[in-house]
Design goal:
single chain; alpha+beta; 3-stranded antiparallel beta sheet; 1 helix; 3 strands
Length: about 90
């Protein structure tokens, strides 16, 4: 019959703890990534505040809204705004 050592004795070793490696998010326009450049969208000059035109990567002049700054985290809301600009352009 085999004898068992009591827990906590030197014969019994705790499993090694492995730390997970953390990596920086990639650069791109997917959720969770860092934006590769600024993203702006012009606002309607009639005063309605509605976004118009495509997404551009430098301030378009006049009234505009910055969607995300270069290096900023692309969130669900940012992605939604970028996708809305793409869908507005394809509807024209």
């Amino acid at each position: 019959m085999a004898t068992r050592s009591k827990p906590g004795t030197p014969d019994e070793q705790a499993p090694a703890a492995v730390r997970t490696q953390e990596y920086a998010a990639g650069t791109g326009w997917d959720v969770g990534q860092s934006a590769p450049s600024d993203a702006y969208r012009a606002l309607d000059s009639a005063g309605s505040g509605e976004p118009v035109g495509p997404v551009v990567h430098s301030h378009p002049g006049g009234y505009a809204r910055q969607i995300v700054a270069k290096g900023g985290l692309v969130t669900e809301g940012v992605k939604r705004d970028l996708d809305a600009a793409d869908s507005d352009r394809t509807e024209d």
